[in-house]
Amino acid sequence: MLYLIITTIIWSFSFSLIGYYLSPEINSWTLAFLRSLVAFIFFLPWLRINTTYSYIVRMSSIGALQLGLMYIFYLSAYNYTTVQRILLFTITTPFYVVLISNILDRKFKLPIIAISLLSVFGAGLLRSTYFDQNDLIGFLLIQLANLCFAYGQVIYRRIKIANPNQQNIRNDFAYFFLGALIASSIGLIISPHNFTAPATSMHWILIIWLGIAASGLGYCFWNHGSTLVNSGTLAVMNNLVIPLGLFVEIIFFSKNMNMESFVIGAIIIITSIIASIKYRSD
Question: Are the C-beta atoms of residues 221 and 6 closer than 8 Å to each other?
Fold first, then answer.
């Protein structure tokens, strides 16, 4: 649980930093590539060459999906909608986590589905707003990103729980970020946009921070933490970043908050997390 909370705090700052400082200057394909590259370089010292081919394929595939492909969808959404709406559009991730887990288990756990939907409802209360055509495009991009993120964390969790003796986490993520780097490199090559080099030292500082902390340590902590909690807790923890991310965005940037909706939504999300911990789903 601690790993998930630490990651959530780190990620809560990423939305605003990208939306206000990076996405206006650096295209999403370049940003996805640079974050993956920095994270891969950070984990490179722990990459073991003498590992099985199947292990390399599994970890790299998870990284390509959960991070590489997800980043392309997620970062592209900043071209169409705002930071606050992007945070709001992530509310469906808990439902996707539960749905994918249930499909793979070939059984549906109604209490966990109910808890995840409660978390979605609470997140929806955090911010009510109108949507235009560009927001709809942003919504669809975020849903694709949510599916990639949900599927990646579920598959990693299942692999590690099924193989408890394979606990070399740093090697896992060396190959994880190799897969992410390959996916984001292909995306950059085939994209209609050229590589956009960071123009200022501030851009480089933020990219290095996002690559090492938000991507590198963040995904390592999150995926490792996913193996230490039940599937219901993992699902609803995906929405804790929404009130925290909105709080950061509102306090430091927009200065605009509906306090009543924010508090009620945050309480519902926290309640769903507590309920998921008490319910033993697996």
Answer: yes
Tens of pLDDT, residues 17-41:
898 889 878 888 899 999 999 999 9
Helices (H), the chain: 2-17, 28-43, 53-63, 70-76, 83-89, 93-105, 110-126, 133-162, 169-190, 201-209, 218-226, 231-237, 241-249, 259-278
| pTM, 2 dp | 0.84
User: By the 8 A CB rule, do 123 and 242 touch?
Assistant: yes
Predicted confidence (pLDDT) per residue in 116-137, tens digit: 555 555 545 545 555 678 888 9
Nearest to 233 by CA among 245, 222, 243: 222
Decide if 8 contacts 237 (C-beta within 8 A): yes
Residue type for position 86: I
